[in-house]
Amino acid sequence: MIENNETIEEFLAQHSVDVEEAVRKAAAAEIMPRFRQLAEHEVDQKAGPHDLVTDADRLAEQYLTEALGALLPGSVVVGEEAVHADPASYDALQGDAPVWIVDPVDGTRQFVHGDDGFCTLVALARRGVLLASWTYAPARDQLATAVRGRGAFLDGERLRSGAPEPGRDLEVATSHPDYTTDEQKRGLLGLWTDGIAPRSCGSAGLEYLAVARGELDATAFSWEAAWDHAAGILLVEEAGGAHLTRAGEPFRITGGNALPFTAARDVATVRQVAGLLQQGVG
């Protein structure tokens, strides 16, 4: 059993490549053979017509649960599909054991429609602190990684988000209307103002990657499921960005956040967007 973050840091120094290999193998074995090849019986709905799950989601999560658990004895896995089946398993985020946070196919709708804008997200955390993350877009053959205090990288190249160009509208990817309630939509209304160019988000993981690359100025999301945000939040942080909730506090993967929240490419932008979110009617 891992006893402290120092030994987890030692684990990451020795085994980050093994985690990357596990993520790539899960995609190669369970996701990509089904990309643009899904049969009707391999696609199901969870909470409604927009909340899809496929055999690729389930089997890739199963693969990663076994592989990551074997790499780090004593760790636990919080995966999107496992939590759907057993909501109580989400409580592991509050425990002392190291936690792998897994979204096997982030952007399932894109995946089902044959769009390459999906990714596999893995993050490692302990006691609510994000320690490392992996964002893999298999159809684009892109792998972004981050380790707390060591920076963010895309295919081995250092990521630096930088500041937006002065004088232009800020592009902000927001919660997609198909996945938001009327109350959540009202919480985002402050973004519809001069100087902001909001648009609906695609895969959350790829939107975070765009922020870390300096290609997108900010995100503004209305939900806090850890598997959607953990990997990207750390990626943005390590690229030089920041995140704040509507209450002006850093986003917590353990939950209880004042929503919506934002992640942005620099501190000035995150403060500006968070201030606009405070004007929304929640």
From TrEMBL:
In its UniProt record, a GO molecular function of this protein is:
inositol monophosphate 1-phosphatase activity
Tell me the segments the record calls region Disordered: 158-181
For this UniProt record, the keywords arranged alphabetically read as follows:
Hydrolase, Magnesium, Metal-binding
Top-rank lineage group of the source organism: Bacteria
Binding, Mg(2+) = E80, D103, D106, D228
Query: What is the uppermost EC class here?
Result: hydrolase
Per its UniProt record, the required cofactor names are:
Mg(2+)
Against InterPro entries, the record matches this protein to: Inositol_monoP_metal-BS, Inositol_monophosphatase-like, Inositol_monophosphatase_CS
Q: Which GO terms describe its biological process?
A: inositol metabolic process; phosphatidylinositol phosphate biosynthetic process; signal transduction
Query: Pfam families annotated for this entry?
Result: Inositol_P (PF00459)
Entry protein name: inositol-phosphate phosphatase
The record lists the organism as: Streptomyces ferrugineus
